[in-house]
Amino acid sequence: MPKSRVPQWTEQEIALLCELYPNMRTREVSERIGRPYLATRRKAGQLALRKTDDYMLRHPHEFQPGHKVPRERLTNPPKPIGTEIFRHGCVMRKVNLTGDHSADWKYVHRIVWEEAHGPIPPGYRVVFKNWNTTDSRLENLELVTAAENSRRAGQRYGAFPKELRQALFALGRLKTKIAEKS
Length: 182
Fold this sequence. Notes:
This protein is α+β, with helices and mostly antiparallel strands. It has 8 helices and 5 strands.
């Protein structure tokens, strides 16, 4: 069994959390228990602990609807433009700071293709000639129809058992339908 990087909560810590959390600020509870603030909040949520009505009257909720948390207080601040991450099997790059994930992040291979050839027409896919999805060099990219892309995928997955191939194709069709509705 792999070792956990974070020590498990003891029964004494959980009992103390259950006792203190409803009537004390979470930061103070975390300091008393000796756990990080976010770990304390997470554990309280897992245990469905809530602040008492009396506590809420004494400490009005800090964040009202529409309140914006200053960036320096965010525990996970937004990544700067130009940041690259590996998601959904490909490298993505942050191109905007709108807060809308689909508008802020673009696949690097699509960026490279569009810079060289302009917008990708509807019904076409930019694919990797060598199947290495981290290799976004222009000479490794080509534009194919969705049908051709499916045919190639069928050849690639041809070695799999029939049931698995059918499941993979069904998953692909489902992802396409979801993407069309988004």
